[in-house]
Structures are given as C-alpha cells and as structure tokens.
Amino acid sequence: MNTKNHEILEAFQFRYACKKFNAGREIPKEDFLTILEAGRLSPSSFGFEPWKFLILKNQTLKDRLFPVAAGGQNSLRGASLFVIYLARKKIDLLPESPYISRMMKDVEKLPDAVIKGKRDFFSHFQKDDFDLLDGERPLFDWACKQTYIAMANMMTAAALLKIDSCPIEGFNRAAAEKILIDEGILDPVHFGISVMAGFGYRDEVQPVKTRLPASEVIEEI
Ligand SMILES: Cc1cc2nc3c(=O)[nH]c(=O)nc-3n(C[C@H](O)[C@H](O)[C@H](O)COP(=O)(O)O)c2cc1C
C-alpha cells in the first residue's frame, strides 16, 4: 500500500467517538482553523451551503447545555473545540427565497440565465424527485444531511492531524434550541440545530473498532 493510502486509512482507524477528552489540552490555532476550513469547503447539494457552524466557547452556555445534551457531556466538559451545526429551514431553501437567490447571484456568481435554469431544476428536485415540500420538516432534514457531510469532513481532517472527535446526536433538540434562542444566538425562523461535535485530545484508551465485514456492506452490481 502506498504512503498516501496508508495515511488515509490510518486516520480512519485513529478516529473513534472519543468519550473522554483531556480538558487541559488545547488544539493549536492552525489545526483549529484547518478543521473549520475542512467544514467550510465541504460539498453541499446544489452548492447551497445550508449551514452555519457555531463554535461554542462560552462556559455559561456550555453549562446550560450540559443537562440537555447527555450524549455530549464528555465533549462539553473536555473538548477543546465544540461545534453546534445549524441547518437552514424551509423559508431559506425554497427556490425563490432571498437566501437561495443570494447564493446563486453573489456567491456562485451565476449569470441570470443560468440562475433561472438552476432555480427551475432545484424546484423540480424538491417537488418531484425528493418530495421535500410536504410541511416544514423535509427541507430542514435535507439541510441537516448536508451538515453531516461537513461534520464528517471535519472529523477526518482532525484525525489526520491526530486530533480526536465525537459526533453528537445525544441532545434534546427543542431544549437545546430554546437555550440558544434565549441567549439570542439562534434565530429559529431561519435555523435549527442539526448535530453537534466535540474535538480535542483523548484521555482514555481507544476501544477496538467493530464493523460489519466489507462483504456485507459493499456489493458490486
Ligand atoms: C450522527 C452521530 C451521532 C452520534 N451521537 C453520539 C453521541 O451523542 N454521543 C456519543 O458518545 N457518541 C455518539 N456517536 C458515536 C457513535 O456511537 C460511534 O460513532 C459508533 O458507535 C461507531 O464507533 P466509532 O465512531 O468509535 O468507530 C454518534 C455518531 C454519529 C455518526
């Protein structure tokens, strides 16, 4: 196996859901910025980046989230970097929304004719292909899926830097959102919480990795 392949697989073996972080060890600034950049540069469907990454530094806020995020308590207490991934809601994801218009015009810098075609195609995708228009939830969940790609890339980038991480769905969404809303951090019209993750350095022995055999999860057709 060549060096690059080995390096990549080594990082995937290194990464595990860290349950105990060393609270006294900080991620160096350069690594911290690289991890965040891995998230920002992640792909998203149609390139619409329906996310925001909240870097939780405020200790009071961490303490407030602690009781409603049982699965994230280790990270809240020990991780050097704690990220709350926000996903955009339907209001921002409808093809005619100001957010989608801004993305195509100002960020992707598409010409008007291309914008029209992409908007029509996006509309068809939502309505006919992925059935995303029934209620508020499907489009929000679709946006949440995109945030998981960013989170995964950040965890892999971290692993390549020998930094540990833990993805976190172990929280009560409504209760966590209420805390962020109360603090004036979350605008619930536009965003909801998708997922969270802690990054830092392990203070425990990594457990043995268990996975189904490749023959069961990979099928050539
Ligand atoms: C989306 C997602 C949410 C998860 N939520 C939690 C969590 O809240 N708390 C936790 O300790 N682990 C959490 N995990 C970790 C998984 O339990 C873990 O990834 C899985 O058991 C495989 O083990 P490994 O990651 O150590 O290889 C989560 C993993 C994913 C992908």
Q: What spatial order of strands do you see in the largest sheet? A: 1-2-4-3
Radius of gyration from CA coordinates: 19 Å
CATH topology: NADH Oxidase
**What form results from the Cα inertia axes?**
globular
Bound molecules: flavin mononucleotide
Number of domains: 1
The major pleated sheet works out as: 4 strands, antiparallel
Q: How much of the residues is beta strand, in percent?
A: 5-15%
What percent of the residues sit in helical stretches (DSSP H or I)?
40-55%
CATH superfamily: NADH Oxidase
Question: How would you state the average pLDDT, rounded?
Answer: 98
Describe this structure in words.
By secondary structure, the chain is α+β, with helices and mostly antiparallel strands. It has one domain: 3-Layer(aba) Sandwich (NADH Oxidase), CATH 3.40.109. 48% of the residues lie in helices and 13% in strands. It is built from 10 helices and 4 strands, in the order ααβααβααααβαβα. It has helices at 3-14, 29-40, 59-65, 73-78, 90-93, 98-107, 112-129, 137-160, 173-182, 214-217, and strands at 51-55, 81-88, 164-168, 191-200. A 4-stranded antiparallel β-sheet has the order 1-2-4-3, with helices on both faces. Helix 2 packs antiparallel against helix 8 (137-160). The chain is globular and about 55 Å long. The two termini are 26 Å apart. The model has no long low-confidence stretch (mean pLDDT 98). Residues 16-17, 19, 71-72, 166-170, 195, 209 line the site of flavin mononucleotide.
